[in-house]
Each structure stands twice: as C-alpha cells, then as structure tokens.
Amino acid sequence: MTTTPIADQAAVLAEGMADQTPSEALEAFGAEQAELDAAGVPSGIATAGSLMPDASLLDVHGNATTLQQVREGRPAVVVFYRGAWCPYCNLALRTYERELAPRLAERGVSMIAVSPQRPDGSLTMAQTNDLSYDVLSDPGNHIGRALGIVTRPTDRVQHAQASLGLDLTEVNADGTPDILMPTVAIVDAEGVLRWIDVHPNYVTRSEPARILEALARAVR
After folding, report:
1. DSSP 198
2. Which of 37, 114, 186, 213 has its CA 20 to 30 A from that of 62?
3. What is the pTM (predicted TM-score) of this model?
4. Cβ neighbours of 172 (radius 10 Å)
5. CB-based burial of residue 204 (10 Å sphere; 0-12 exposed, 13-18 middle, 19+ buried)?
6. pLDDT tens column, 164-211
7. 179 strand-pairing partners
8. Model confidence over 16-62: pLDDT tens digits?
9. Domain locations in the chain as residue ranges
10. Which CATH number does 6-218 carry?
C-alpha cells in the first residue's frame, strides 16, 4: 500500500491546476472552499445505527438497480462523489481502487461509488480509472438527500464552472446543479449504517487507512 495520503496528492493536484486555471475561477473556487470549511458538516446528517437509505439507481449501462441488489447481502463501503468532471473525485476513487478495494475484497466487503451524474459519466469514471467496483448513478440524489449530504454550488462557482466548460445541469441525471458532499459510508450485511464520514470541502477525502480502521470496528 502506498504511503502517500490523498491529502498530499490533492495538494500536488491543486498546485498543478493553479497554473492552468484562470484567476477569476481560482478565486471563486478558493472562496467556496473557505466558506465550506467555515460552515463545517451540516446538521441533520444520518447517524450510525440508522437504516441505510436506498433508491432506484442506474449502473454504467443505464440498467436499474439498488444498493441492496449490488451488495448481495454483503457489508459495503459506499463512496459518494461529485462526478467524473471533478479531478479530486478521480484522484480519490483511483486511490481507493489501488489501496482499498483489494483489502475489502479479502474481507468479503463490496465497494460501491455513487454520484448524481448520468450513467455515461459513471462509465467514464470507471473506464478512465480502471475501477473494479460498481459505479452507480442516483438520479435526483435520493440517497444523498436522505443522508443529508446534498449541496449546490453558489452562483459564482457555477459561473466559474461554466467558464471552464462545465454545466452541472447537463451532466447530472436530474438536470439540476445539485451535487454531493464527498462522503464514505459503511453499511453492514443487514443494511444498517455503521459509520459515515462527510467532507463538505471537496478537496479533502476519507483516507483509505481511516476507512479500514472504521470498518474493523464497525463490521466484524
């Protein structure tokens, strides 16, 4: 297992992006990140011990499924991410493939990634990063809303995204700009939420080692 934390990888990524991104967009993103840090984790987040919410989801080919169907009675680590357009999401999911997925497979724990994007975006995420685990779409963010992790970029940030060629209403399955706070949830075999780690600031992510430690405590 590599010893390079996601946080360090993200810092290198941010430095590289700073050289390629217009200053106006950088200022908008920086201001948003500061606001997210100041606000912290919102109230109303689902708590351990509650039933993990589920919904009608779509796989990378647009076929209907659910978390329960994909889990097949196994415990699961469910990663909620913003979309294939997000460089920090690509970094995190690629790291999870390398450092987390094999360890989960050894324990009979499934890994699932969920975002609000259309299935073609999920397919792009899976293929670009050679992901072995299921990548699903949740049109309308039904699970995210039940968990309390749905957010919407400010108008300023949406304008900055548009200047870079990104329109969330085009990539999201429900045609809205609503996205998810990066979150990792651990679900036991009975479908009960045992651990949840929410990151309002999308630059930060749950580190693989922390997820494995939580899994060891939550699922025996």
Report:
1. E
2. 186
3. 0.96
4. 23
5. middle
6. 999 999 999 999 999 999 999 999 999 999 999 999 999 999 999 999
7. 151
8. 998 899 999 999 999 999 999 999 999 999 999 999 999 999 999 99
9. 6-218
10. 3.40.30.10
